[in-house]
TrEMBL record:
<dbReference type="GO" id="GO:0046872">
    <property type="term" value="F:metal ion binding"/>
</dbReference>
<feature type="domain" description="Auxiliary Activity family 9 catalytic">
    <location>
        <begin position="21"/>
        <end position="238"/>
    </location>
</feature>
<dbReference type="Pfam" id="PF03443">
    <property type="entry name" value="AA9"/>
</dbReference>
<dbReference type="GO" id="GO:0004497">
    <property type="term" value="F:monooxygenase activity"/>
</dbReference>
<dbReference type="GO" id="GO:0030245">
    <property type="term" value="P:cellulose catabolic process"/>
</dbReference>
<keyword id="KW-0732">Signal</keyword>
<keyword id="KW-1015">Disulfide bond</keyword>
<keyword id="KW-0624">Polysaccharide degradation</keyword>
<keyword id="KW-0560">Oxidoreductase</keyword>
<keyword id="KW-0119">Carbohydrate metabolism</keyword>
<protein>
    <recommendedName>
        <fullName>lytic cellulose monooxygenase (C4-dehydrogenating)</fullName>
        <ecNumber>1.14.99.56</ecNumber>
    </recommendedName>
</protein>
<keyword id="KW-0503">Monooxygenase</keyword>
<feature type="signal peptide">
    <location>
        <begin position="1"/>
        <end position="20"/>
    </location>
</feature>
<keyword id="KW-0378">Hydrolase</keyword>
<keyword id="KW-0136">Cellulose degradation</keyword>
<comment type="similarity">
    <text>Belongs to the polysaccharide monooxygenase AA9 family.</text>
</comment>
<dbReference type="GO" id="GO:0016787">
    <property type="term" value="F:hydrolase activity"/>
</dbReference>
Amino acid sequence: MLKLISFSTIFAAIVSGVLGHGYVQEVTANGAKYTGYLPYTDPYYNPPPQRIIRKVPGNGPVTDLSLIDVQCNGYTDGGVAGSAPAPIYATVAAGSSVALNWTTWPESHMGPMITYMARAPSDITKWSPGTSAVWFKVAQTGKNSAAQWAAPTLLVNANSIYTFTIPPKLKAGQYIIRHEIIALHAAYTYPGAQVYPSCIQVQVTGSGTALPTSFVSFPGAYTASTPGIVYDAYQNTSAYPIPGPALWTGGN
Ligand SMILES: *[C@@H]1O[C@H](CO)[C@@H](O)[C@H](O)[C@H]1NC(C)=O
Ligand SMILES: *[C@@H]1O[C@H](CO)[C@@H](O)[C@H](O)[C@H]1NC(C)=O
Ligand SMILES: [Cu+2]
């Protein structure tokens, strides 16, 4: 009986997952593949599978950009709000590319894909940034001159794989990669933009010494008046201003 109940719960969850929006389901770094945090199955295992991605409650978005949830799509877990650490991390060389495999992204959810990093001051499996300004932007794709959005068009064309490069001169150490799609189908007003963030824990290796000098916080980086948060994606044919700070490329 118990088994049956939990099976149907998982089944219902899987069905809603298929019909919903999305999250990063797999990470490839330094040639190794890591399964992402799977919100519709991982919670039903005891012990839970060990992941490099911080827990997300499901495939849904964050729309209230003042909430800590906008950091990692996290929620209060074990007393840690917003981005409860995951137990393990991936290792990746500075200058190498990281591939993030998204679940099937809905055709209707157009918007940019943006990637930030934050350097952990200590053990990343114990660190939550809270509202501190620690994040710097390392990659961004918005709308190109052919009016194609990062998501869904470019993402679908790439087989649902988004790729970015760890800044080549970035100082070795532990970092959170905060990656997101911002869906703009309802962003003609605020709240409306839907943020789908994912936080991936990595150990960066290499001999670089570069670190950025300016940082943003999540929540904080995005508000109703940040360019690109309110945008009429159906009517507005002008260039799209990608939200957040300038890119940091580490002197490259
Ligand atoms: C993305 O991950 C899914 C689930 O693990 C897998 O079935 C699919 O083949 C992956 N896509 C690519 C292009 O590797
Ligand atoms: C189109 O978007 C840009 C950038 O957000 C904005 O400055 C401009 O006012 C918008 N145009 C219209 C007609 O809404
Ligand atoms: Cu949606």
